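INPUT
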Amino acid sequence: MKIGILTIGNELTSGRIQDTNSSLIARAMQEQGWAVAGMISVGDDDDAIRAALAHLLARVDAVIVTGGLGPTADDITTAAVAKAFGLGLYSDPAVLAHIRARFEKFHLKWTENNAKQAVFPEGAEIIPNPNGTAAGFALRREGRIVAVIPGVPAEARRMLPEGVIPLLRKAFPEAALHVETFTFKLFGLPEAAVDEAMADADLAGLGVGIGFYPNFPENHLVLTARESSADVAAEKLREAGKRVEARLGKHIFATGEETLAGNVARWMTERKFTLAVAESCTGGLITDRLTDIPGSSAFLERGVVTYGNTAKTALLGVPEAVIREYGAVSAETARLMAEGVRKSAGTDLGLAVTGIAGPSGGTEAKPVGTVFIALACGETTVCRPYAFRWERRRNKVMASQAALLMLWRYLTGELRDDG
Amino acid sequence: MKIGILTIGNELTSGRIQDTNSSLIARAMQEQGWAVAGMISVGDDDDAIRAALAHLLARVDAVIVTGGLGPTADDITTAAVAKAFGLGLYSDPAVLAHIRARFEKFHLKWTENNAKQAVFPEGAEIIPNPNGTAAGFALRREGRIVAVIPGVPAEARRMLPEGVIPLLRKAFPEAALHVETFTFKLFGLPEAAVDEAMADADLAGLGVGIGFYPNFPENHLVLTARESSADVAAEKLREAGKRVEARLGKHIFATGEETLAGNVARWMTERKFTLAVAESCTGGLITDRLTDIPGSSAFLERGVVTYGNTAKTALLGVPEAVIREYGAVSAETARLMAEGVRKSAGTDLGLAVTGIAGPSGGTEAKPVGTVFIALACGETTVCRPYAFRWERRRNKVMASQAALLMLWRYLTGELRDDG
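OUTPUT
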């Protein structure tokens, strides 16, 4: 089955807004096993919309359209699509009542132009919008389908799996396999290495697809099974997942919707562990990521950003002599920072990072990207050196990722004290 | 003049990579005053490329194509475009020598497929690539132009203004006005309020265009002047800029390529001010943003993330009684945090944030999004209450922005102690 995507809006063709819907829809289609033959963006222009629709309909089985369903005069998608199909327009009483009820619920002032959002081409199948006033619709013509949904990403993101995909699966039963996906999140492994590790896994023989999505600083590996029954798809996915874990297990830190910081936060909270963090080159990014997780105050007692050397001494008790002898960026300093922050905070764990983010500050012995990460666990302190090779921001992100990963490995019992 | 954009690559139609080139090019065209009539993305597929090119060429004066210029077998853009124009291919000796030199310079192993990047359609005009091996090219046909550049964003970003736009300006002299743009960065003002403030500025009468680009948590206002001489364009832009500053000056924190954190860092460094930061709800995001600026160690002595109340007391000397009486999220606590971190660090300034990021922790009196920001300047401490209404991450970003803005206003002498 072939799919076309048409996103509509002057904000796209003027470059004012980055179109994220095309990519979102393309990925969802890929997961269904449907090929995207083309994606077009045009402005709110009747002729351009019709020409783009005609171009796509000549090449695909279904076109998914987003944008231009708002109440204002420049939103013309419904009228343009109706015109392209030679259809008249009608007002749907149920949708109109839904919109009016939403206005009352949120105490919004009703203006007559909002009634426009209840207008559809004759014969359209309504696609409900649980998050907004702009309902979508679908039209069928000569075995082809055009499905139109709003351009607001939060609304499109929900209406796609709940409204559009079920509609397409029903309309094209030959394409209606049960599709299940499963995501592994990895760090520290380039695509070529993943390919190599997975070479003998024979997922293709199992009928499971594998996709690799770079997502700096992570890589996401997505398994897709398309089968005639949901049970078979799930079973194949479980088997494929085992093969991935056997080969890449130590690089996997999260699956599905989990995140690294989220997993760390969950384990810390469940086990009632407490943490203090001392950051130099990451500048607060580690605690920023941890505090993005709701409820992180349960385990994060404090963070200190010791950018100056005096702060390392005053707040963490790192002796000036150590900094002088080994340098602020050294394993010795990192260890003492981790132990110092743990002790002063009275927490179970102390995590510390010191390094050279760049662009300046590097030396021959310690070039830009040199980072030391230490975890003080009470009885022992583990410290690891890293050499990142990016610009400043990416070095910070890599260092924060490596630090959270060290913590995660400790929590899951996989961190070895080999230093 | 009308422009079409064609981005090519299976990574786009599979949703694996978000296409950012279309938006980048669309915005550059908008600034030139050229309308983008359509943007198409297709996979590395000969037929799809030719059909998309034909669709666009029927509607526009020039098509800008990105992607599919790599050395591997799946990169077929050059061959597909040549075929669409009925042209043969040739190998360009100068480009081949340039590619070989690059391989030698970076000590890369030469493989024969790299010679493919020196192959162009007959009669093509080469567009040099200063950042990579894939040169671009342009073809002319019946008064229309097709310009092809690589899909790597860093390369496209540079070749667009240096190669493609000059070529189009030369080819379409009627469109070759001098274009100058100027960007103002604002915070805390919705688009409607900007519209209202600018209503009597009559920039249209001056012949200067105004664009408004939301860039959470900031809004960017871009002025564009298109004139027959660069001097006239610059002069009109200066006059328009004055009118913007007169109306919106207090909301502007940066212009051009400047950033809020960068401006703060520059002023702090120039005036040899030192800073210490105490963060609760922002969790380290403020120091993270400041330490993104190279050289920030010159002014940032330390940051502390006092997520627990005991840390507020132990590290900042906020009396337990104050937290008990007024709450950890209160003006009283924010002031004492700012003063405490300033005193303990011995810095000129102390900046503190405490608040409720959400989703839980809100009360009727202090709902989610309640934030207090304080700046201790020595002789005085300024504290302001804020009420943000977003989810957790956006509340953190807004709070960090408001805090940096308070600091910026102090540095520029615009902060008033009214509370």
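end of record. Chain B touches chain A through 75 residues (CB under 8 Å).
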